[in-house]
FruA
Amino acid sequence: MKKIYAVTACPTGVAHTYMAAESLIKAGKQKDMEIKVETRGAVGVENEITAQEIAEAHAIIVAADTDVQEGRFAGKPVVRVPVAQAIRNASGLIEQALAMEAAAPAAEAAPKASVQTEPAAKTKTRSPFYKHLMTGVSAMLPLVVAGGLLIAISFIFGIKAFEQEGTFAAALMDIGGGAAFALMVPVLAGFIAFSIAEKPGLAPGLIGGMLASQLGAGFLGGIIAGFLGGYVALYLKKYIKLPRNFEGLKPILLIPLLASGITGLLMIYVIGEPVKYIMDHLTLWLQSIGSTNAVLLGLLLGGMMAIDMGGPINKAAYTFSVGLLASQVYGPMAAVMAAGMTPPLGLWLATLIAKNKFTKEEKDAGKSAAVLGLSFITEGAIPFAASDPLRVIPCLVAGSAVTGALSMVFHATLQAPHGGAFVLLIPNAVGHVGLYALAIVIGSVVTALSLKFTKKTIAE
């Protein structure tokens, strides 16, 4: 029997990674075949595919929006798709993998034969830009979560208790703000560069990111530094040719030295100041934003969170808001998390107040959606949206847009970029917590009522 292996990974490593793995395993069982799926989630690599298994594989399915070290699959047929596609069409991906021609022994023996892309096919792939950016965001998120929560905990001892040196609150602030938040931009840039050029890209990316922080260019400068460092390292790796005996000097000495120097000089003399100017004005505008602009920004960010439920538009809004945390701008983060919670929460509420509009399976799924919504896992709405997209998605967008706008109008703030309703229990983690909770409730009700009036009644 042909052996198929798969790898799944998403930027946050919380939901899509495991939902895709479950779908592939389930679809494999329906075809009487066992599929081993390696997951690369927030807890790290689980169920890792071994070198022996790669050698025995007929084909590999890579359902990922971040770097999964595909170089190890060189010479093997690979079906490469965004992670969400494995959730929607796992069976089709397995059929596609089974239909691919096995690699010729010569191809396996020669790594440079490289990984094949999916067949002509009509399967959509993420752009390299998106994959590299999400690899950086994925690596940065644990720092943001840990740093944000430690800062919030320091406020339990008083909003300015950290200003007194030697206190426990000051120590927590040093860990969260002084260390974790200081590493955010360098790590973002470093792992973008790592995704582009692998290990040789790490040093120029980290150094470029640190310079972006020191120059005041913020997360925008970090993103530019990551791509710059990565592509400079990749170019040098490709075009520097040395005698075989000196090849070892390339990854250890030449590429880090030249790529870091080029990236650093460009950041200092060309890129840093203009990006700092943009970031300073963006930060100033966000800190002094008026009610009308706040509503518009909240509507926009909120709608983006619901329109593709974990897809690139959702991640663009999320990345923008997370990046602003490094500039001590917390309002957009609050709007984005609240708007990301309401799609599954609104669907759960709709299954209660409009039972005749949902199948028994959907009503059962509504209970799970409630838990996912409370945990800020927007992807819990995907099964509902997939079954009736023209009616469900507009309702989700409406509820999330209202939530985002209300959160901005209420001047809600959020220090941690994840955690859902559980963050509300931490004192001072959320500014204006009562109004913030009200925004989530109102958005969920808007979603549920919209669904009640737009979805068709199901005949029992």
